Amino acid sequence: MSDKKRVLILCTGNSARSQMAEGLLRHDAGERFDVESAGTKASFVRPEAIAVMRELGIDISAHRSKNVEEFQGRQFDYIITVCDHARETCPVFSGIGQRLHRTFDDPAAVTGSDEQRLPVFRRVRDELRSYLRDFSGSVA
Fold first, then answer.
1. Looking at CB atoms within 10 Å, which of 9, 31, 105, 114 has the fewest?
2. Are 13 and 48 in contact (CB under 8 A)?
3. What is the residue extent of each domain of the chain?
4. What angle do CA 44, 45, 46 make, to 5 degrees?
């Protein structure tokens, strides 16, 4: 039996924010956490999210967008919502240890060229990393 803490990271589409957060936490603290991500309405993993994670040497290209319903009946020590919609519509999980929330801008909502969108993905990625480092540092 693993002594790793189980973490589920949720957003709406499981296409950018929660996917990047899953990759970051797994990369930065995977020895301490079993990490999953899901969305309230699964879609696809954004190519821009894959690209900006690759810049850090983190490969999320094999990730798939998952619906939160796939995790019903499973227990998590932490459920982290990274958008208001997910916080408001997140189903109740039995045995939940702690729910955490912080809203991050949705980089998938930005329109325009790659040169206009990628900086937003990078900023949100870096904000997620800072938040998750604070989170992992506060968990004993």
1. 31
2. no
3. 5-138
4. 110
pLDDT in tens, 16-53: 999 999 999 999 999 999 999 999 888 999 999 999 99
Contacts of 113 (CB under 8 A, 6+ apart): none
Instruction: For residue 44, count other CB atoms closer than 10 A to its CB.
Output: 12
Cβ–Cβ < 8 Å for 133, 28: yes
Q: What is the CATH number assigned to the segment(s) 5-138?
A: 3.40.50.2300
Q: From the CA atom positions of the chain, what is the Rg in Å?
A: 14
98 membership: H or E segment, kind and range? strand 98-101
Extract the tokens encoding 49: 């999210």
Q: 19 near 60, Cβ under 8 Å?
A: yes
Q: What is the pTM of this model?
A: 0.92
Sheet holding 33-39, edge to edge: 33-39, 5-11, 78-81, 98-101
The catalytic residues are 11, 83, 90
Is pLDDT at 96 greater than 80 in this prediction? no
CA 41 to chain centre: 14
